Structures are given as structure tokens and as C-alpha cells.
């Protein structure tokens, strides 16, 4: 142990002083990474990085499989898996080996030339998922943008939609990423405020509402190129559609000649217990978008899958990405998919998910005033808390306490906590999380409530700026919303009447 490390262990003030010195302009990045505490790292990031997420204050320094360590050596169980990008577990050896081996040969060609890894990946991926062709990209949002462009192109070339009149239908409460095209479909004020004007040619429909979708297709069907949806709405809080919904969507899309576009970026690659969540209803979408776990938590890799009649509507030069289909990503993606197949991660997700939900349901029985609902499929799960039971405490506060007890989970909206661990997780580790949650509810929550007494927290979702609805993502069964189209910054949205 060197002198600096010994001093840092002994005295937090010395550590802070040292960090300040190290963070001065003369220090190297390596020095900073080796010497700073979590708090210093967080400050450092806050000073130099723009905002994007609302992070839980924990710093990842090392990870393996389901575990993460912070710079102080504290160990955590990862129940977010980087939003389902780490289905295979952190730093899976097979994926790392593929990365290193390929890095020693070739990392980038750009598709201005061919390389000898992408075709292998393309063949493996298309065979595994049963589609003719793949269009490779990098991030999830790029994958979605690609699918939207593909649908428009197909709409004009194959369906005969008049020029520039193509419409894409998407769902209220959806999350497909953060690009302008994608947020044009969002009902999330945080994602949309201040970023208009939005993309024209959009229509919204309630997720899970077959009758409303049918109405839209009846009224606008001639111009609708695609219906984009998540088979389970992940970021909205793990919202499952009614049984049979995906099959009905398939039937409607076929009847009205609309491309059924499944965003399986979060639900795909075994997360829900099948290779694709659409497999639960035996449905084959026309277009599938993959991302996240396709890169095994190592590199950003996304892909759009479709058959030739759709995919070949995009001609050479009409779409691309410098890094899309790069050999390094291709090697990593092959290994990532092989791990999912070889380790039967889909089967594991079904088994572990059931145990997890059962344990949480027991907890709900013990605390019905606080736990409103436990839901999910495979290892994509959420626990929704009662706003009343929480009083001024938020799901974020609960996640902070979970972190103190070694469990990393992330809230979505004010009252929902998502649990999506790596699919390699073991029974004891799942139980550890449930135990920690129980302790937070029984020991920490009463204290937090007391501390926050008198402070006012709004747990009600604010009305969507664009459609005016208060609760866009959850609807009591049986309630139907009459459709009315209105124009807002050249967008069509459905309004609840
Ligand atoms: C369903 C879905 N689509 C798209 C995205 C966007 O992916 P990325 O953050 O890689 O752009 C996400 C990210 O959470 C997602 O959950």
C-alpha cells in the first residue's frame, strides 16, 4: 500500500484535500480514477458533464456478473443491468474474450468497405431470429429511427402512400429513446418540453387498446406505414398489455397492410423469458428492433430485422452509420447472443422471475398499504407503490435506501421501482433484494416519512403537454377513450374526451 492510499484510508479530510489536488489540471485521468472517493467522483462529474439522467448516487468502479463495486470497495447487487443491457451479467468472460481477440485483428472498416466479421454476425442474427436481413446500428434510439425510416420508405414504395403523407402510429406512454424523431412520439413532458417542433406524421393510441387501434387504421389506414410499439412498456413502469393484445395487433396490421414494428430493445434477448417478448403470443412482427443486450453490456450494438421485401426498400447510400456493423461490435454481438443461447438465459428468466414475483407478492400481502402492485414477465419486473402509503417519500428515496442496503434499482415515475437484474442471477441473490426491500419498508420508510413530515411532494403525474391527459400510461380495464385528433405543432395526438 503506498503512502497516499494509507493516508486516504485514515483521514477523510486528507482524502478530500488530495482529491482536490489530483483533480487539478495537471493530474492524469488514471490518477483521478485510482484516487478519488465516490463523493469526489460524483462532484467531478457534476462539474464537467451535462445533465441527462437523475442518477442514484453510487459510483461503479468494478463489476462482475450480478455484482458491482464502488471505489471504496462496497459491493452491490445490480438490479437495473444498465436498463437490461447486461442480460448476460457484467464482463462475461466469453464476451470479453471475443472483444479482445477481435480488437487485436480489426476494429473498424466503416461500411464503405467490407469486413470479415459483420457478415458472420448478420447470418447468425438473422438465422436466430428468423428474418431475411439485418440493418446494423449502434444505440437503441438509432435502431428505432432506422425502423421509422424503413417504414416510411416501404409505405411510399410498396403500399403506395402519397408522397410525404406517411403516418406512424405509436402508443401513449411509450419510450423509444431520445432523438428528435423518437421524442416526437413521447407523452413525457421531461423528454419533450423545450424540444419542439416535433416530427409530423405521428398518431398516438392507447397501449393495449385494440378497438382504438382498429379505429385509427379504419380512418387513416391508407396512410399508415407502421405501428411502433413495445410488447411490454419498460420505462413507463413495466406495463403489460392485456392477454391477446399482440396477436390482435398482428391481425390488424396484416388486415390494413401496416408494418408491425416491435421495439424489443428492452424486452428482447431473453429478458422476459423468451428470445423476444412477442414470442409469448407466438407472433412474428414485420420489423424487430434490438439493442442493449445485443452488445452484452460491453459495446453499443443495435439492429433492425426485417424480410427482404421490406428491408430492400432502402437502397445503397440511403441510410448508414460509420460504426454500424463494425467488426468489433459484430464479434461482441455474436458472443453475446451465443451466451444467451448456451446458458439458456430465457429459461432462467422465466424461473427466477416467477420466484421473484412470488416473494414480492408475499411482501405485498404483508404491506398492502404500501405495495400497490407487483407485475412483470421473466426478469423484467416492477413494484408499484401506493402514493398514499409513501406520503412525501418518493420511489427515488426508497431506491437510495436500497442502495444503502446493497441493492441497486431505479425508479421510474414517482412511485414505481423497476427490477431487472442480469439473467444470470441466483435464487439467494433475488431473496437478498426482497429482504432489503422489506427492511427498507419496515425500518427506513417510517423514519423517512417522519423526517419529511410537512414537506409536500406531488406523486400525481402531471398532464401531458401534448394530449392533456393526466395518466397516460395506465388505464383501468374496460375504459375506452373516444378518439379525437388534434393538431399540435404539426402532430396529431389522440385526446381523452
Ligand atoms: C424500449 C426502448 N427503446 C429504445 C431505447 C433507447 O435505447 P438507447 O438508450 O440505447 O438509445 C430504450 C432505452 O431504454 C428502450 O427501453
Automatic annotation (TrEMBL):
CDD domains: OAT_like. Keywords: Aminotransferase, Pyridoxal phosphate, Transferase. It is an enzyme of class 2 (transferase). The keyword Electron transport does not apply. PROSITE patterns: AA_TRANSFER_CLASS_3 (PS00600). GO terms for cellular component: cytoplasm. One of its GO terms (biological process) is L-proline biosynthetic process. Pfam families: Aminotran_3. Pathway: Amino-acid biosynthesis; L-proline biosynthesis; L-glutamate 5-semialdehyde from L-ornithine: step 1/1. GO terms for molecular function: identical protein binding; ornithine aminotransferase activity; pyridoxal phosphate binding. Its EC number is 2.6.1.13. Its cofactor is pyridoxal 5'-phosphate. Belongs to the class-III pyridoxal-phosphate-dependent aminotransferase family. NCBIfam families: Orn_aminotrans. PANTHER family: AMINOTRANSFERASE CLASS III (PTHR11986), ORNITHINE AMINOTRANSFERASE, MITOCHONDRIAL (PTHR11986:SF18). This is ornithine aminotransferase. It comes from Taxodium sp. 'Zhongshanshan'.
Amino acid at each position: 500500500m503506498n503512502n497516499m492510499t494509507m493516508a486516504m484510508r485514515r483521514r477523510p479530510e486528507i482524502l478530500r484535500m488530495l482529491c482536490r489536488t489530483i483533480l487539478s489540471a495537471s493530474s492524469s485521468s488514471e490518477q483521478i480514477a485510482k484516487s478519488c472517493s465516490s463523493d469526489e467522483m460524483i462532484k467531478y462529474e457534476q462539474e464537467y458533464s451535462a445533465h441527462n439522467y437523475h442518477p442514484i448516487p453510487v459510483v461503479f468502479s468494478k463489476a462482475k456478473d450480478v455484482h458491482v463495486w464502488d471505489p471504496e470497495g462496497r459491493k452491490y447487487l445490480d438490479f437495473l443491468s444498465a436498463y437490461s443491457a447486461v442480460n448476460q451479467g457484467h464482463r462475461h468472460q466469453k464476451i470479453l474474450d471475443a472483444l479482445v481477440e477481435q480488437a487485436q485483428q480489426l476494429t473498424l472498416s466503416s461500411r464503405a468497405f467490407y469486413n470479415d466479421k459483420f457478415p458472420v454476425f448478420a447470418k447468425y442474427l438473422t438465422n436466430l431470429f428468423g428474418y431475411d436481413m439485418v440493418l446494423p446500428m449502434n444505440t437503441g434510439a438509432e435502431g428505432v429511427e432506422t425502423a421509422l425510416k424503413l417504414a416510411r420508405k416501404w409505405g411510399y414504395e410498396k403500399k403506395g402512400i402519397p408522397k410525404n403523407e406517411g403516418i406512424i402510429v405509436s402508443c401513449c406512454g411509450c419510450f423509444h429513446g431520445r432523438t428528435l424523431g423518437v421524442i416526437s412520439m413521447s407523452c413525457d413532458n421531461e423528454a419533450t418540453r423545450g424540444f419542439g417542433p416535433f416530427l409530423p406524421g405521428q398518431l398516438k393510441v392507447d397501449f393495449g387498446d385494440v378497438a382504438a387501434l382498429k379505429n385509427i387504421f379504419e380512418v387513416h389506414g391508407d396512410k399508415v406505414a407502421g405501428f411502433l410499439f413495445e410488447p411490454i412498456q419498460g420505462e413507463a413502469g413495466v406495463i403489460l398489455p392485456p392477454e391477446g393484445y399482440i396477436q390482435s395487433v398482428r391481425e390488424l396490421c396484416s388486415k390494413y397492410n401496416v408494418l408491425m414494428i416491435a421495439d424489443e430493445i428492452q424486452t428482447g434477448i431473453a429478458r422476459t423469458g423468451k428470445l423476444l417478448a412477442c414470442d409469448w403470443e407466438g407472433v412474428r412482427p414485420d420489423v424487430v428492433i434490438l439493442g442493449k443486450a445485443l452488445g452484452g453490456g460491453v459495446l453499443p450494438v443495435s439492429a433492425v430485422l426485417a424480410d427482404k421485401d421490406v428491408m430492400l426498400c432502402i437502397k445503397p447510400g440511403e441510410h448508414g452509420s460509420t460504426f454500424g456493423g463494425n467488426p468489433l461490435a459484430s464479434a461482441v454481438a455474436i458472443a453475446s447472443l451465443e451466451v444467451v443461447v448456451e446458458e439458456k438465459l430465457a429459461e432462467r428468466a422465466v424461473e427466477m422471475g416467477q420466484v421473484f414475483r412470488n416473494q414480492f407478492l408475499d411482501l405485498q400481502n404483508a404491506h398492502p398499504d404500501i405495495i400497490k402492485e407487483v407485475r412483470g414477465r421473466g426478469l423484467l419486473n416492477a413494484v408499484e407503490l401506493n402514493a398514499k402509503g409513501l406520503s412525501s417519500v418518493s420511489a427515488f428515496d426508497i431506491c437510495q435506501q436500497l442502495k444503502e442496503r446493497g441493492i441497486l434499482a431505479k425508479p421510474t415515475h414517482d412511485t414505481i421501482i423497476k427490477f431487472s437484474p442480469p439473467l444470470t442471477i441466483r435464487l439467494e441473490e433475488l431473496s437478498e433484494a426482497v429482504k432489503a426491500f422489506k427492511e427498507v419498508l419496515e425500518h427506513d420508510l417510517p423514519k423517512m416519512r417522519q423526517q419529511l413530515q410537512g414537506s409536500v411532494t406531488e406523486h400525481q403525474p402531471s398532464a401531458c403537454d401534448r394530449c392533456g391527459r393526466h395518466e397516460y400510461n395506465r388505464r383501468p380495464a374496460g375504459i375506452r377513450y373516444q378518439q379525437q385528433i388534434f393538431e399540435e405543432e404539426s402532430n396529431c395526438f389522440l385526446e381523452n374526451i
